[in-house]
Every structure is written in structure tokens, then in C-alpha cells.
Amino acid sequence: MSKVLVIGGGAAGLMAAGTAAKNCSEVILLERNEKVGRKVMVTGKGRCNVTNNCTQLNDLIAAVPVNGRFLYSAFSRFMPSDTIDFFESMRVPLKTERGNRVFPQSDKASDIVDALFFFVKRAGVEIVKGRAESLIIDDGRVAGVHTFEGEDIYADSVIIATGGKSYPLTGSTGDGYKLAEQAGHTIVEPKPSLVPLEVHEGFCTRLQGLSLRNVAITVEDTEKHKKIYSDFGEMLFTHFGVSGPMILSASSHMRDMKRGKYKIYIDLKPALTAEQLDARVLRDFSENVNRNFINALNFLLPKKLVPVIVSLSGIPMSTKVNQVTKEQRAKLVSLLKHLELTVTDFRPIDEAVITSGGVKVAEIDPKTMRSKLVDGLYFAGEVIDVDAYTGGYNLQIAFSTGHLAGESASGV
Q: How far apart are CA 311 and CA 267, in angstroms?
């Protein structure tokens, strides 16, 4: 019987360990935290967006902007439908929401973590608390790890599934990169992905805490004069700029970040054309002819947003609405359809949902997740240089690569 050591008890590591054990391997799962799945617990705001109910392989790959084709074999062997079947077979009913996002019906990430934990325990995996310090490599082949606790754990195969550098409080501190480098692997510089954005406009601070729903955004690369992303949904203003689901997704399309390179245009009324919105504003004004301009927008916008829009419009707040000119109204409509934000930077990597960068995919066999440099060494999950859009795709990467690595390491 072969012996497999999995380093990291997150989504990828748990799937890899359980899969290898089911295939009759003796498996040790080395996890530095007291409990497994800590990062899974905080995904989807604690609800856990477990996968995306995407049925076409090409659509799945298209949702991975960084090295998506590398995942062809992993996805082919374990699709979102397999993830759904897996959890429902573990008695976790799932539901599909907007954008094909899949969640547990209970809306509790703990149900997903519990299912993965019971999966590995029933398969006979031994969970050991400890932190890998270095790989034991003998004559070009991995033979185990040396831990920070001073213990040597020997194995025929080692799967590194330690995650990236996002959410460091969950244990994702980049340990896997150091282990991979020791084995001679190239590490593509880790950068934040699916991360909030800092913006130049000071009014964001005044709007801190305001959540906008059912709005649309367009992101423009000002250097290439090209629209690179658009979306409809929810966003949030913060003291540093913007966050929320749409913003996190937009961030994954931004490369080589520079101050002012990217602009975000918010359409506050995407259901209305400019002409329809103008008619709506004119109607509101006609019903409030004796009011000051600042008091005539409360039916159109969230209360917190009104003074900001009034200030940006250039229309004095005390102007009576029946004195607002057609040109001023046109500027107001344009502002409501194209509220402009100038992106200055990503937030720090420890605030990112996932890490972009990691072990260079050219040095990993995509059909097995095996290292091309050291025999017996495998990789799974976020430690690899692949990252996807928000919507359950990144957890699917973890499950697919973990499943493939577990199968391969156990000799299937």
C-alpha cells in the first residue's frame, strides 16, 4: 500500500486526502490549524459558494482568466456536477442561485466543512496537527516532510495543498511557495485577486457602508481605451474605495495595476435608458416644483448618495427644481448613468479572497498534477498559478485539482 502525505487541510487538501484514501492508500493529512477547512468557513460570507452550476467545460475554463487551459484535465475528471453529487451524497442539500452560484440550502459553510471532514475520516485519513517546514527529497524524489515541530513524516507521495497568501489568519501564509521553491519550482509572484479596490475620489469615504444593489458597472482600461469588464449586481462603498461581489470580480480582470490605469463607471439606473431616466427626473421635478434641488432626489437615490450626486452635478443645492435647466438636467442624467471612479490600487493581499500567482503551471503535469521536477510531488488548489472569477469557480478548482492529485498520488 502506498503512503500519501497531504499538506494543507483546506478544500483542495481535504478532497485530495479523501480521494487518495478511498483508492486504498494510507494517507496522512498535515494541517497547521486545530481544525480543518478554516478558509472554507469564511467563503461566501459564511454561506460557502461551493461551486458554479456550469455544465459546459469550455464555459468553466473561460471563467479562469489565468491559465484556464491548464485545468482541462482536472475539470474533465471532476466537473461541477460531480461536486454537487459529492456533497448531496454526503447529505448536504444544495441550491442554485443567481449566476449559477451553488450554496448549501442551510446557508451554512460549516455544513460543507463537516461533509469534507467526515469524508476524510470515513476514508481512514489520519489528521496530524503540524506545519511543514521543508520537504525531504532523496535522489530527485520526495520522501516526506520535516515539520516545524521537529518531526519527520515519510511518504511515497506528497501533495502540497497549502493555499495562497490571502486570508492569512486562516493559515494561508504562503508556506507552499517555499516548499515548491525548495523543490526547484518557479513561483509566479503572488498578487491579490478578487480583492477590494482603492479609489481616488474622496466622496467614497462619505458613502462608507452604503451598499448599492441592482446597479451596473463598466471597467475601462484607460491606456488601451478598452472596456475590459461589465457586470450587474451589488457593490459596497468603503472608507478606502469600493468592494462587494461585482468589484471583486472586476479586480480579477485588472493586470499590472497602476494609479489611474483603470476607471469604473457606475450606472445607478441600468433599467432605464438615458431618455427614460430624463423623463423620470422631469416627472419627479414636476411633482416637487417648490422644493430645493437637494430635496428632490430622495425618491430616486439612497439618502446617503443624494448630497454626493448634488455636489458632483454642479447644480447649487438650494436651486428650485423648476429653475434647473435642460442642460443641467442632462448633466445630472449623465452622472447617474456614468458615476466615475478612478482606481488607484488593489487592497493588500491579506484582504483578497484568493491569490493570483503561485507555482508555475509549465512545471506541473496537467493530466496528473504531478511535479515535472521532483518525482512523487503533486500540487492542488490555490498554491498553483490559476485563479478564476468569483461565483464558485475557485472552490471548483480546489475540488477538481484535489481530486486529480489524490487519484494520481495513489496510483489510479
A: 18
Tell me which DSSP letter residue 375 carries.
B
Q: Which helix (H) or strand (E) holds 75?
A: helix 72-77
* Judgement on whether residues 371 and 318 belong to the same structural domain of the protein: no
CATH code (residue 186): 3.50.50.60
Angle between helices 393-409 and 11-22 (to 10 degrees): 30
Helix (H, G, I), strand (E, B) or coil at 365: strand
Full-model pTM: 0.84
Average pLDDT of the segment spanning 32-39: 90
- Exposed, middle or buried, 162 (CB in 10 Å: 0-12/13-18/19+)? buried
Q: Are residues 145 and 49 in the same domain?
A: yes
Containing domain of residue 310, as a range? 196-346
Domain count, the chain: 2
Do residues 173 and 264 share a domain?
Answer: no
Determine whether 274 is exposed, middle or buried from the number of CB atoms within 10 Å of its CB (0-12, 13-18, 19+): middle
What is the per-residue pLDDT for 98?
Answer: 86
